[in-house]
């Protein structure tokens, strides 16, 4: 038996049943020395399995961890279901699209039609991880995910010494972001906020729901200056929402499942 692994699992099991909890409560509940617990908790925090609340200094399992098993199975199902939807969307609007899922504190692109587009750069986008607070897919997910998940994302990001960390602590900016996305109905990429390799891309994204829960996001991307705001509102957003609804229905009603 690997003792360190066993102790880490013991801490996770305790947090599953008693969360949020303090270091003293963990010590009492598990019987492990506080020095050992701090070492385990530090490792689990670094790996994104556990986070410590800023307001109460109590430890919690990551919201993402609660659904990790679902998401491991979800990725392949989502990728398979998304293919025909993305192909049809690109046929209609000409520009390519991606489907992305949350992966910790970033979004992971799991399927794309960028390779089928002759103009758009950055074709090797599978596995790219757009930042949640600085991408269209991130904004769409962040604005419509459950409140508890959103607070966890903000608390964990605020611990980072990065631009995302700074934004996560700016309550006015966060409130304005949420209002803006919800009023429009979609997340929009700031072309200068997250530079893309070999060019500057714009994009919009909307959430994909299963059982009224956001499971992924779908976007349309294009080079800076290639599309007018009027075309986005009148043509691209309605068509993108239609694609998201189609994907939701496939995942909800067919043999595909991401639950």
3D architecture notes:
With about 260 residues, the chain is α+β, with helices and mostly antiparallel strands. It folds into two domains: about 5-60, Arc Repressor Mutant, subunit A; about 70-255, Beta-Lactamase (2-Layer Sandwich). It is about 50% helix and about 15% strand. The protein contains ten helices and seven strands. The chain has a five-stranded antiparallel sheet. Strand 3 (about 100-105) and strand 4 (about 105-110) form a beta hairpin. Helix 1 (about 5-15) crosses helix 3 (about 35-45), helix 5 packs across helix 10 (about 230-255) and helix 6 packs across helix 9. The longest helix is centred in the N-terminal third of the chain and has 26 residues, at about 70-95. It starts with a helix and ends in a 6-residue tail after the last helix. About 35% of the residues are buried.
Topology overview:
Blueprint: H1 3-17, H2 23-30, H3 34-46, E1 50-52, E2 59-61, H4 63-66, H5 68-93, E3 98-103, E4 106-112, H6 136-144, H7 147-157, H8 163-168, H9 171-184, E5 187-188, E6 201-210, E7 213-223, H10 229-253
Helix pairs in contact: 1-3, 5-10, 6-9
Provide a compact summary of the structure:
The protein is of the alpha+beta class and 259 residues long. The protein has helices at 3-17, 23-30, 34-46, 63-66, 68-93, 136-144, 147-157, 163-168, 171-184, 229-253, and strands spanning 50-52, 59-61, 98-103, 106-112, 187-188, 201-210, 213-223. Helix content is 51%, strand content 16%.
């Amino acid at each position: 038996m690997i003792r360190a692994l066993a102790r880490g699992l013991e801490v996770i099991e305790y947090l599953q049943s008693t969360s949020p909890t303090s270091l003293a409560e963990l010590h009492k509940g598990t019987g492990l020395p506080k020095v050992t617990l701090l070492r385990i908790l530090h490792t689990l925090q670094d790996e994104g399995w556990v986070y410590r609340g800023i307001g109460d200094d109590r430890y919690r399992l990551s919201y993402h961890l609660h659904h990790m098993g679902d998401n491991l199975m979800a990725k392949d199902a989502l990728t398979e279901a998304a293919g025909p939807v993305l192909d049809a969307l690109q046929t209609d609007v000409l520009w390519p699209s991606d489907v992305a899922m949350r992966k910790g504190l970033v979004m992971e692109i799991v399927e794309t039609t960028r390779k089928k587009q002759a103009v758009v750069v950055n074709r090797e986008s599978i596995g790219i991880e757009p930042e949640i607070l600085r991408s269209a897919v991130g904004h769409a997910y962040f604005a419509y995910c459950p409140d508890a998940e959103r607070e966890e994302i903000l608390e964990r990001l605020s611990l980072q010494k990065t631009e995302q960390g700074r934004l996560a602590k700016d309550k006015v900016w966060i409130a304005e972001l949420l209002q803006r996305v919800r009023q429009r109905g979609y997340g929009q990429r700031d072309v200068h906020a997250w530079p893309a390799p070999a060019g500057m891309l714009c994009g919009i994204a909307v959430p994909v729901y299963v059982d009224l829960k956001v499971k992924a996001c779908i976007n349309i991307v294009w080079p800076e200056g290639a599309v007018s705001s009027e075309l986005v509102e009148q043509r691209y957003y309605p068509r993108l929402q239609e694609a998201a609804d189609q994907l939701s229905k496939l995942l909800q009603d067919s043999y595909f499942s991401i639950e």
